Amino acid sequence: MGEQRNFRVWRGDDNGGQLEDFQVEVNDGEVVLDIIHRLQATQAPDLAVRWNCKAGKCGSCSMEINGKPRLGCMTRMSTFAPEETVTVTPLRTFPVIRDLVTDVSFNYQKARELPAFAPPADVAPGEYRMQQIDVERSQEFRKCIECFLCQNVCHVIRDHEDNKQAFSGPRFFIRAAELDMHPLDTRTDRKDAAVEEQGIGYCNITKCCTEVCPEHIKITDNAIIPMKERAVDRRYDPIAWLGSKIFRREQLDKPAGYATAGVATAPRPNAGTADTPVEQAAAHGAQGDISANWHREAAAGHAAPVGPDGKLPVTEFTGQLAGAQSPFGDDVEFPMPATDINYQHPNRPDEH
Amino acid sequence: MTNIERHNYDVVVIGAGGAGLRAAIEARLAGKKTAIISKSLFGKAHTVMAEGGAAAAMGNANSNDNWMVHFRDTMRGGKFLNNFRMAELHAKEAPDRIWELETYGALFDRTADGRISQRNFGGHEYPRLAHVGDRTGLELIRTLQQKIVSLQQEDYAATGSYESRIRVFAETTITELFVEGGRIAGAFGYYRESGEFVLFEAPAIVLATGGVGKSYKVTSNSWEYTGDGHALAMRAGATLINMEFLQFHPTGMVWPPSVKGILVTESVRGDGGVLRNSEGKRFMFDYVPDVFRKQYAETEEEADRWYTDPDNNRRPPELLPRDEVARAINSEVKAGRGTPAGGIYLDIASRRPAEFILKRLPSMYHQFKELADVDITKQPMEIGPTCHYVMGGVEVDPDTAAAAVPGLFAAGEVSGGMHGSNRLGGNSLSDLLVFGKRAGEYAARCADETTKRVKVPAATLNAAVENALAPLGRGEGGENPYTVHGELQQVMNDLVGIIRRRSELEESLGRLADLKERIKKVGVGGGRRYNPGWHLALDLRNMLAVSECTAKAALEREESRGGHTREDFPQMDPDWRRVNLVCSLQGEDVRLERKALPTMRSELMRLFDRAELAKYLTDEELADFDAAAEGVAASGGSASNSAAVGGADKGDV
């Protein structure tokens, strides 16, 4: 019942690598991860891949399949045409360790930088009382399986290594939103932290993270936008601002620069480093005729317009740029020609 | 000489699932420098797969619930083979462990009055499972993971380093435990990422490595479940109990491969699904045992009428108890009437309209549509028994979770005794919280009490390095580890599966002995960096050791009880209830010993009706029970003995 299909898998390590072609048996009802396992068992015993539950619940087998960030265990072979070559590459945003395995430690660092749940001091264990309707908002974000596909697809860091320091990424915006909306969390500075510590201002709401989320969490609409909006409300509504100064004493010991435009006039750092997307794209070694254009000439990444304190300006009015930076470079005209984009919409695989 | 990274810790926890993380939190809270060794990335452990919930008698849904009812349910579920003290501690402490999670940030589903909602589950007398939709395991692991991060943040504030007091070693596999002078001295393993070796010297080690499902062909378990902790414990000189008891589910998917092992809920049959063999025959009518004959329909016409008119018709035989269904499926497959994938068909598509299926089984429909592109409203499912959970594990002291080797502790699925011969749904999540905490607490205490720390001698270390490198040394010329693994799974599936018989178990021991020799010749190409072939080669000997335990114990136990069904001994035998089969390692071979089960304290015994006890106990035990009951009556003791039980301690066992 099996038939031979063409697979192309990226093999290599941090010193470089290339796509290798395989002919491999594919049976009805299999998913991409099954085929990777067959390659291990029959042709490439040392082919490195992460996986655990094989049921879309642990978020380990994140990879890029024909250029699309997907879970290997949730990508059915029946979604490809029989003659189609399936190209499997590692997550592009994170450094390759070997083959399909990448170093995702960035995400664990960002997790540490986000202040933990702050339980109410005066409520004993067992005495927590919350209404279902109030916990549901946070529960949506706790569905996250930490596959990091949203982090991988996010333009702010996908081609901009130097943004990683100041930007936590969608995974941790939903974590911040989750705690912000937690009925019993006692911290009141979650939104401010999202701006000042996590760099949520970089997000230009392209919703790519929402589109790739295998748990269908509405990352942008339900987490990022509310966090952005409330941050803006509180900062720039003078009455709210005054109120916050009077009533919210815990913020008095905030470092200077809180809600001030201290970085507004800072010169914008020079754009581009050696680690350009062009090189990164080349390093991913696209060969041959696959649907995604791995050779695209992407514009050099711009450094984040942070001030001397390493933080973003608090508002675009005081920054040098209206709106967030474009992940394609700020001098690119839109719409870009389709052939220059190496991202495919997950629900519209025919379009580039 | 190979370079080996060395670490010194007070407590090393091997395994980063629920039990491991809870143990690590407790050890760190006790002020101990703690390491967590995770075979996968942090937060990916198999605990995420648990769906139903965590059982705890909080009494939120029904105020009649309390620890005594939970204890009773657990003992019943385990067919009285449980270590009663573990079941008692578990039932008493589970609510506190769940409430504690809320202070770590967990968000369970709520009742109308804002408390933790509890759901019904098989075997539990009252609604008892704290849950979050069908992703309770994920909530648990994420909560514990985030608690550990918060402890690291505290340490960062105090010391300037996140990892000064608790550190997670992700994607690190332990291959050896070291015992020096009769006590635990350290653990040795490798980083998957680099293939570099690492030594942890520690006076206390907690095993929390989960189960053994990867020895089976059809399993709901992930690749990590290779019985590492079971095998490490035995090689260190500790003992395993109850290894013959594995929980299989009769209806797991066997095809397509993308969903192999995933459970198909019994309500598919309850709502009209029928079992058919490859000839299209609805075969369950041939498998109704005499004792059930009166309650079950004899014709398809009568069975089909039952769904709409249960009062005037008998039940369809598809609704026989789980083990009967499993036995029937097993027989059909062995008679050559199975599907190509080795299962049988579960057909609801041809029997119910699509709208009915969508309305009654929405999550089943979506699960199969999304994971496998199988439309259960249009085509039958291919199902067969799937390996789910191992009740057996490291023999531990119930209060301290300490194994037979000083300094070694075990908690969660890797420990044995708590669930007896069968585990109730929902009891695993609460088990790992209760005993994870205890293991961490007593490991920390053990580290305190160990004044003199022993070093691991260089020669021992070199031997461990040599063992680990051997498969790479043999290169691609050796046996292919994937092939050997496949054969091991086939042997366990065919011969030590859900229904067992003497001849097959004997055959399995021969096949396992062959495989043991072949495992010694396994070779892999490639280097040490993230080489899954090498990793599998090193896991194989663990899988073989636990498989041998299961096969030997299954052959020895001549009765059927819970997760152990012998076709040649279909009844439960009260004499066997008093016996645990204890596995240890003698050289390379598994040695089996019989050991008496601890006797339940009489005030716990009196929580049960005599009529119920009569099903499990020997006449001798019943006589003792009667004598004790008379004694209580004579001394004016009340039948309600909650106070006596609550105040009882371990000493009066």
UniProtKB/TrEMBL annotation, chain A:
Region (Disordered): 322-352
InterPro entries listed in its UniProt record: 2Fe-2S_ferredoxin-like_sf, 2Fe-2S_ferredoxin-type, 2Fe2S_fd_BS, 4Fe4S_Fe-S-bd, Beta-grasp_dom_sf, Helical_ferredxn, SDH/FRD_Iron-Sulfur, Succ_DH/fum_Rdtase_Fe-S
Keyword rRNA processing carried by entry: no
Keyword Oxidoreductase: yes
Cofactor: [3Fe-4S] cluster; [4Fe-4S] cluster; [2Fe-2S] cluster
Gene3D superfamilies: 3.10.20.30, Alpha-helical ferredoxin
Protein's pathway: Carbohydrate metabolism; tricarboxylic acid cycle
GO terms for cellular component: plasma membrane
Superkingdom of the organism of origin: Bacteria
PROSITE patterns xrefs: 2FE2S_FER_1, 2FE2S_FER_2
Pfam families: Fer2_3 (PF13085), Fer4_8 (PF13183)
Domain 2Fe-2S ferredoxin-type: 5-92
Keywords: 2Fe-2S, 4Fe-4S, Iron, Iron-sulfur, Metal-binding, Oxidoreductase
Swiss-Prot/TrEMBL GO biological process terms: respiratory electron transport chain; tricarboxylic acid cycle
Any GO molecular function: 4 iron, 4 sulfur cluster binding
Assigned protein family: Belongs to the succinate dehydrogenase/fumarate reductase iron-sulfur protein family.
Designated name of the protein: 2Fe-2S ferredoxin-type domain-containing protein
The species this protein was found in: Planosporangium mesophilum
From TrEMBL, chain B:
Record keyword Oxidoreductase present: yes
Residue span, Fumarate reductase/succinate dehydrogenase flavoprotein-like C-terminal domain: 485-599
Residues that hold substrate according to the record: H249, T265, R423
Bias (Low complexity): 633-647
Stored SUPFAM superfamilies: FAD/NAD(P)-binding domain, Succinate dehydrogenase/fumarate reductase flavoprotein C-terminal domain, Succinate dehydrogenase/fumarate reductase flavoprotein, catalytic domain
Keywords, comma-separated and alphabetical: FAD, Flavoprotein, Oxidoreductase
Highest taxon, organism lineage: Bacteria
Annotated transmembrane regions: none
InterPro entries: FAD-dep_OxRdtase_2_FAD-bd, FAD/NAD-bd_sf, Fum_R/Succ_DH_flav-like_C_sf, Fum_Rdtase/Succ_DH_flav-like_C, SdhA/FrdA/AprA, Succ_DH/fumarate_Rdtase_cat_sf
Record's keyword annotation contains Translocase: no
Example of a GO MF term: steroid dehydrogenase activity, acting on the CH-CH group of donors
Obligatory cofactor(s): FAD
Residues that bind FAD: 15-20, 38-53, 228, 388, 413, 428-429
Active-site residues from the entry: R322
Protein name as catalogued: Succinate dehydrogenase flavoprotein subunit
Native source organism of the sequence: Planosporangium mesophilum
